[in-house]
């Protein structure tokens, strides 16, 4: 089947688009292009609505990748309205929810730049996110110090930009890969990098804000001991701002 064009990758602030149905299986459908981000890298899949040509609204309750990663699967709640291949639909994401993910995802990248350890896990929610770090023997994390560093960096409003690196160059720069369990997809000739000013650079396919100031104030709610070397740092958004 044809691959889905991932508009969110280059246009993370794009909230809606027209798209044509390429495949339907029950309450799962694929589109030729989409603004819906599929679950991955700790970031949940987008939710939202589809508007059929007759005006019928169908709810998208989750978004996932196909097994081969080529298609993006839009999972619908049961409802009226016949959807067929070739049909042109209007698609709209739940922007309030997505924007929180973008702010938190960027905040977690920023947090990782202050912690001298590899990432062993991460998860993003609507109001808080967490990263698990594998630390060296005897290494300690100070909650107040981390929170101060995060908010100081946010106040500097550094730009968040996208770079690309070839597969071969990535192999020569293993320091770019900060995670134990998830490696960036290779084999397509290049890998997407997210850069935060001069503070951080790492592979990522998720959605991010364009400048740190958009994140707003952050709070480190707690640091949990998850084993001899592992520490879980939980970060919360301290406000509910929405970029309309």
Q: Can you tell me about this structure?
A:
The chain has 244 residues and is α+β, with helices and mostly antiparallel strands. The chain has two domains: 77 residues, Elongation Factor Tu (Ef-tu), domain 3 (Beta Barrel), CATH 2.40.30.130; 140 residues, Threonyl-trna Synthetase, Chain A, domain 2 (Threonyl-tRNA Synthetase, Chain A, domain 2, 2-Layer Sandwich), CATH 3.30.980.10. It has four helices and 15 strands. It has a six-stranded antiparallel β-barrel with strand order 2-3-7-6-5-8. Strands 9-10-15-14 form a four-stranded antiparallel β-sheet, with helices on one face. Strands 11-12-13 form a three-stranded antiparallel β-sheet.
Please give the order of strands in the largest beta sheet.
Answer: 2-3-7-6-5-8
Runs in which pLDDT lies below 50 for 5 or more consecutive residues are: none
Shape label: globular
Which structural class should the secondary elements be placed in? alpha+beta
Q: In what range is the share of β-strand residues?
A: 35-45%
Q: Summarize the biggest pleated sheet.
A: 6 strands, antiparallel, barrel
Question: Which whole number gives the mean pLDDT?
Answer: 91
The first-level CATH class name of the largest domain? Alpha Beta
The separation of the N and C termini measures 35 Å
Fraction of helical residues: 10-25%
* CATH superfamily membership of the largest domain: Threonyl-trna Synthetase, Chain A, domain 2
Element pattern in H and E: EHEEEEEEEHEEHEHEEEE
Short description:
With 244 residues, this protein is of the alpha+beta class. Helix content is 17%, strand content 37%.
């Amino acid at each position: 089947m044809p691959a889905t064009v991932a508009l969110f990758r280059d246009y993370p602030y794009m909230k809606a688009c027209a798209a044509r149905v390429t495949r339907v299986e029950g309450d799962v459908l694929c589109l030729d292009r989409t603004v819906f981000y599929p679950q991955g890298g700790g970031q949940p899949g987008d939710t939202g609505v589809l508007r059929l040509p007759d005006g019928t609204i169908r709810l998208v309750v989750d978004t996932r990748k196909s097994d081969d990663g080529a298609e993006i699967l839009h999972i619908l709640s049961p409802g009226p309205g016949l959807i067929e291949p070739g049909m042109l639909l209007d698609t709209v994401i739940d922007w309030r929810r997505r924007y929180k993910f973008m702010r938190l995802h960027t905040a977690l990248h920023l947090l990782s730049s202050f912690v001298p350890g590899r990432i062993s896990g991460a998860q993003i929610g609507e109001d808080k996110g967490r990263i698990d770090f594998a630390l060296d023997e005897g290494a300690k994390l100070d909650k107040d110090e981390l929170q101060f560093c995060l908010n100081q960096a946010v106040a500097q409003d550094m730009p968040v930009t996208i770079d690309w690196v070839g597969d071969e160059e990535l192999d020569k720069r293993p320091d770019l890969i900060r995670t134990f369990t998830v490696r960036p997809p290779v084999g397509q000739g290049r890998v997407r990098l997210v850069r935060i000013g001069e503070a951080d650079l790492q592979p990522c396919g998720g959605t991010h804000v364009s400048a740190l100031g958009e994140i707003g104030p952050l709070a480190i709610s707690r640091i949990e001991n998850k084993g001899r070397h592992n520490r879980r740092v939980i970060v919360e958004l301290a406000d509910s701002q929405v970029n309309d």
